[in-house]
Amino acid sequence: MTRQPGASNGAYGFEYCALHYYSGMKDAFFLSYLSDIGGSKEGGKKYCELPRSLDDPEHTDAIILGGAHSHPNNRQFSREDLSIDSQWRPTRFLDKRTGRIFDRDLLMLYRERSGECRAYGYNNTSRVVSALREGRWAPIGQVINEDGDIRMLEGQGWLP
Predict the structure, then answer these.
(1) Which among 17, 83, 104, 119 could bridge 124 via Cys, Cβ 3.0 to 4.6 Å?
(2) Is the pTM of this model over 0.85?
(3) How many Cβ atoms from other residues are within 10 Å of residue 15's Cβ?
(4) Can you give the residue ranges of every domain in the chain?
């Protein structure tokens, strides 16, 4: 996602969006096709529109867990990303077929100038922001209100 044209071009770049989903048949997580439909809002904020449907005939048991998007110019979620109005509902649900409980998450990807890709997740149920570090999700912050303000956890930040 972060290697797409313009995805890492800072203020001149733009976002890509996808759906992220789970397949029990493969016991794996996937991203849908990418959407670059979007642009810039007033004030220069970038945005993209999530795909409206999932077309994956190889994973007919797909469970959509939420959205994913890239940021071309910063590695932080926006307040809009974390606001209560942007949450998918229900935020937690049961897969009746497997009995597994899933939380909805928003993923965000950012490519550093060094080429390293950073991944962040926002859990819509717990309202915890995590960073993928050494192959594991590590909590780094807590959303503290409906507007999407975040309080970083002690000793944590957007960079390791």
Answers:
(1) 104
(2) yes
(3) 27
(4) 10-152
